[in-house]
Design goal:
45% strand; globular; 1 helix; 5% helix; mainly beta
Length: 82
C-alpha cells in the first residue's frame, strides 16, 4: 500500500542548500525525532525520522496530522530525538 504524500500546498517549508550546507550525513538507520515545521498555515510539531543532516540542519521525513508523509530540511535546533 502506497503512503499518501503531503500535498504541495500543505508541505513544510524547507531550507535550501545554501542554508543547510555540507557535509551531508545519511545514516543507515534514520533515528526517530520530533521536530517543529513551518507550513502555510503555521507551525506544528511532528514525529518523523532524520534521513540526513549537516552541522546546521536536519532532513526530516515526517508524518503530518492526516497521516501523510512529507520531507523538509529544518534547522537542527528545531529537532529532538525521540
Amino acid at each position: 500500500m502506497a503512503v499518501e504524500q503531503v500535498p504541495l500546498s500543505e508541505q513544510a517549508h524547507s531550507l535550501g542548500p545554501a542554508q543547510y550546507g555540507e557535509p551531508v550525513t545519511r545514516p543507515d538507520e534514520p533515528p526517530p525525532v520530533r521536530a517543529w515545521i513551518h507550513t502555510r498555515t503555521g507551525h506544528e510539531a511532528v514525529d518523523g525520522v532524520a534521513v540526513a543532516w549537516t552541522p546546521r540542519a536536519v532532513r526530516l521525513r515526517y508524518t503530518d496530522g492526516h497521516g501523510r508523509e512529507g520531507f523538509a530540511w529544518v534547522w537542527a535546533n528545531a529537532v529532538a530525538r525521540r
